[in-house]
Design goal:
- The protein is of the alpha/beta class and 149 residues long.
- It is 44% helix and 15% strand.
- The chain has five helices and six strands, in the order E-H-E-E-H-E-H-E-E-H-H.
- It has a six-stranded mixed β-sheet.
- It comes from Halomonas urumqiensis.
- InterPro entries: UPF0178 (IPR003791).
- This is UPF0178 protein C1H70_16575.
């Protein structure tokens, strides 16, 4: 059974709850990796991994452990690209699939937007996490887990 990896530093609480319920229901080994303590219920299937504070410490830990066929849940595009390069599947907390066909364009757009912001342009931030985002994520995660059983 593949392992589910969660970039927990920026994972919305509602998405975390969906992941926990799905991992328990499907007996899927799941790791929440962050540079701070993540409150999780006692579980055989769901574990937290706290890493040292530092830039990209959680990302580096995930990349060192993830293997082909595992699923990573993250919105961090450079981390997603590294996981995809290792053969892992990647999904955002909004249920979007990131893969070899779209990750490079997404990273380039992210870099372009960072350049605009650095020049003083106000580009706004990501939209809030909506009920539709929650449903789409839960459905996408269920589909991935169903394929793995």
């Amino acid at each position: 059974m593949p392992t589910l990896w969660v970039d927990a530093d920026a994972c919305p609480k509602v998405a975390r709850e969906i992941i926990i319920r799905a991992a328990e229901r499907t007996a899927t080994p799941s790791w929440f990796v962050a540079n701070h303590a993540i409150p999780l219920p006692p579980s055989k299937w769901v574990k937290a991994l706290s890493v040292s504070h530092g830039v990209d410490a959680a990302d580096n830990e995930i990349v060192s452990r993830i293997i082909a066929g595992d699923l990573l849940i993250t919105s961090d595009l450079p981390l997603a690209m590294e996981a995809i390069d290792k053969g892992a599947k990647v999904m955002t907390t909004r249920g979007e699939t990131l893969d070899a066909n779209n990750i490079r364009a997404r990273v380039q757009m992210r870099d372009f937007m960072e350049t605009l912001r650095a020049s003083g342009e106000h580009t706004g931030g990501p939209k809030g996490y909506s009920d539709a985002d929650r449903r789409e994520f839960a459905n996408a995660l269920d589909r991935w887990l169903a394929k793995r059983r």
